[in-house]
Write a structure and sequence with these properties.
flat; mainly alpha
Protein backbone atom coordinates (compact mmCIF):
# COMPACT_ATOMS: atom_id res chain seq x y z
CA UNK A 1 0.00 0.00 0.00
CA UNK A 2 2.92 2.36 0.48
CA UNK A 3 3.64 2.30 -3.25
CA UNK A 4 -0.01 3.03 -3.92
CA UNK A 5 0.16 6.04 -1.62
CA UNK A 6 3.27 7.35 -3.39
CA UNK A 7 1.48 6.97 -6.73
CA UNK A 8 -1.67 8.63 -5.38
CA UNK A 9 0.39 11.57 -4.09
CA UNK A 10 1.75 12.11 -7.60
CA UNK A 11 -1.72 11.93 -9.11
CA UNK A 12 -3.17 14.46 -6.63
CA UNK A 13 -0.22 16.77 -7.22
CA UNK A 14 -0.84 16.77 -10.96
CA UNK A 15 -4.65 16.60 -10.99
CA UNK A 16 -6.52 18.26 -8.16
CA UNK A 17 -9.90 16.68 -8.92
CA UNK A 18 -12.47 15.11 -6.62
CA UNK A 19 -11.76 11.61 -7.87
CA UNK A 20 -8.02 11.94 -7.21
CA UNK A 21 -8.59 13.25 -3.69
CA UNK A 22 -11.02 10.39 -3.08
CA UNK A 23 -8.48 7.82 -4.31
CA UNK A 24 -5.87 9.29 -2.00
CA UNK A 25 -8.35 9.27 0.89
CA UNK A 26 -9.20 5.60 0.35
CA UNK A 27 -5.54 4.60 0.33
CA UNK A 28 -4.78 6.69 3.42
CA UNK A 29 -7.72 5.07 5.23
CA UNK A 30 -6.50 1.59 4.34
CA UNK A 31 -3.08 2.56 5.71
CA UNK A 32 -4.75 3.62 8.97
CA UNK A 33 -4.14 7.34 8.50
CA UNK A 34 -7.66 8.57 9.19
CA UNK A 35 -6.56 12.17 9.71
CA UNK A 36 -5.21 12.38 6.14
CA UNK A 37 -8.10 10.30 4.79
CA UNK A 38 -10.71 12.61 6.31
CA UNK A 39 -8.91 15.73 5.04
CA UNK A 40 -8.72 14.38 1.49
CA UNK A 41 -12.30 13.10 1.62
CA UNK A 42 -13.47 16.55 2.74
CA UNK A 43 -11.63 18.18 -0.18
CA UNK A 44 -13.08 15.59 -2.55
CA UNK A 45 -16.57 16.11 -1.12
CA UNK A 46 -16.45 19.86 -1.72
CA UNK A 47 -15.30 19.38 -5.31
CA UNK A 48 -17.84 16.60 -5.93
CA UNK A 49 -20.63 18.87 -4.72
CA UNK A 50 -19.50 21.55 -7.17
CA UNK A 51 -19.60 18.93 -9.93
CA UNK A 52 -22.98 17.55 -8.73
CA UNK A 53 -21.57 14.01 -8.62
CA UNK A 54 -23.88 12.24 -6.19
CA UNK A 55 -21.93 8.98 -6.22
CA UNK A 56 -18.72 10.64 -5.06
CA UNK A 57 -20.61 12.74 -2.54
CA UNK A 58 -22.00 9.56 -0.96
CA UNK A 59 -18.65 7.76 -1.16
CA UNK A 60 -16.86 10.61 0.60
CA UNK A 61 -19.52 10.90 3.29
CA UNK A 62 -19.28 7.15 3.91
CA UNK A 63 -15.48 7.23 4.07
CA UNK A 64 -15.53 10.10 6.57
CA UNK A 65 -18.08 8.28 8.72
CA UNK A 66 -16.12 5.01 8.65
CA UNK A 67 -12.74 6.60 9.34
CA UNK A 68 -12.96 8.36 12.68
Amino acid sequence: MKKALVWANKVVDSQKEYWTYYLHAKIAAKNGDCKAARADAQQSLELAKQANDDAYIKNNERLMADCR
